[in-house]
Amino acid sequence: MTTRIPAVAPRDASLLTRIGYWFAKRRLGEVPEPFAVTAHHPRLFRASATHELMVERATHVLPKAVYELAVYRTAWTVGCSWCVDFGTMLQRLDGLDVDRLKNIADFETSDAFSEEDREVIRYADAVTATPTTVTDEQVAALVERYGNAGVVELTYQISLENQRARFNHSLGITDQGFGSGDTCRVPWLTDAAEPATA
């Protein structure tokens, strides 16, 4: 399936965008398609890339297993195959159990998830629902377990994933093969040139 808005090829991109592509490919092995589609709007491209890096550096209160599970569930709920794919890769690289993700639909009854996991998944579902269905009791229980900063971090990650997943799903951006380790290329990547150095 092709995206509803095509990726910006390096030959059509600004120098800063081409440098962004180079760094993304160096870090991830491929240029993420959402990145290349967002490049149609250079200011939002830079804002998004900067924001993602800042969020990654700021997220340190919760264990990765907690917020990655919540982010994955959010992507799965919204129906963003790109985010599910990418989230699987992140969990695999962090040494987390990706096999249990096959049971995400049955998290309430699956032995693959602890009660702590279920609490986090229920919260991700409540934040993602439209309108949201978060209760005072949910937040209080999470604060008791993770503290105020932890709940802020968890809520921020879930909300950010809602933005990512809805953006990607709306523009027809689908899985790219990150989760399987068999990453496919964005269409123009084979002729992508390295950025010019100063």
TrEMBL record:
It comes from the Bacteria. SUPFAM superfamilies: AhpD-like. Gene3D superfamilies: AhpD-like. This is Carboxymuconolactone decarboxylase family protein. It comes from Aeromicrobium terrae.
